[in-house]
Amino acid sequence: MKADLIATRQALIEGKTHPLATAQACLDVAQSSACQHAFLQITPESLKKTATQPAVTGQVLAGLAVSVKDLFDIEGQVTAAGSVVLQNQQPARQDAPAIARLRAAGAGFIGRTNMVEFAFSGVGINPHHGTPAAWDALTDRPVGEAQAPRIPGGSSSGAAVSVATGAAFIGLGSDTGGSIRIPAALNGIVGFKNTARLVPTQGAIPLSTTLDTVCAMTRTVRDTVLAHEILSGRKVPKAHKPLSSYRLAIVQSLMQDSMDSVVSRAFERSLVALRAAGAQIQEIPLRELLDIVPMMATGGFSPAESFAWHRDWLGKDADQYDPRVAQRIQRGAQMAAHEYIHLQSARANWITRVEAALQGYDAILSPTLPIVGPCLSDVAPGPERDAEFFRVNALLLRNPSTINTLDGCAISLPCHAPGELPVGLMAWHTAMHDDTILQLAALLEPVLQRH
């Protein structure tokens, strides 16, 4: 795996490399075949200018490359959310808060990354701008190199590939139902979904105002902690306790259903390795998770809330939308007001019951996804592949989206061995357990890497 942000920053401080050389190395990767379709816009001059500016106290990113999902406002740039519908809109008049915080920390913005149109899918396909192929950061090579290219995961597809290939140290994205953790798992990198309220969502085109979360992907946990501290404007306290002091659980319900053989082997090996390292892991039923299926029977929050935003655009430009995205948004028109209100109260009640069931546990461990990424050709645009696309999409979203519905926090860590397709291990809990999840992840990471 390429050097992470913190190691590169230390090399800059020690004079072992030059900021401009580091910026150029990232640009070379971003403009290479490894990042084909990963970027919608690359901004070399902006990155180089930031990289060569005099160091300012507190600018912990030191001009290092950060990619930005095409969902966020950057002053002077058009925010199109991976669509063609919005590509001729007026440029943003100011930075989104997340962009402003990264800029204040000294981020060098390398460009805008490709994404699923309007962030409405976990697969990563974009019929307008092409789809980047997954890249395994652990081995620094394309996923499916000897076979066919694999899906990158979505919706933050380009962000994940930019980080996995080494074009960016941080990939800013969003997570409404897994859009950070899905591509992180499928590209062998780290993806952290914080508790939604910790980072402002203003200046980002919404998918679901209830579930949207602004967060990022990196190559290591320590980089993830730094990225979260910048985005949330808060410090993550250091923990000084061993892995054996954490009370961990795995759940029998939902999260381990329909695992393919590659994921199952990687997950079981990870548990064996963690137990050997002293982790105390208990299996619990947590049957409350099964209630999410009937609770979401009317479609959930995303279709209804996205339809409210897209209604006028769909009325005049529906033919310019990705048909698969339009189909999911238009489902929101069918939800009645009383169903939406009932869903809000049902969710609140469900969260309370799950929180009660998890009292006493520091984190729950699950596979991030039950399957490895399929070949791009299996789910490429086309009505003849729609059934397979929606089947895969549902499987990819199932585990991560449960945490969004829970208003929780979660991190995905790579847990596959070299030669295997990328697999993620997810550590998660309910709202405002972010510090514990990040502290635990720092202990899990070296065990998983050795394993």
TrEMBL record:
GO terms for molecular function: catalytic activity. It comes from the Bacteria. It holds the Pfam family Amidase. Residues 26-438 form the Amidase domain. Coiled coil: none annotated. This is Amidase. It comes from Limnohabitans parvus II-B4.
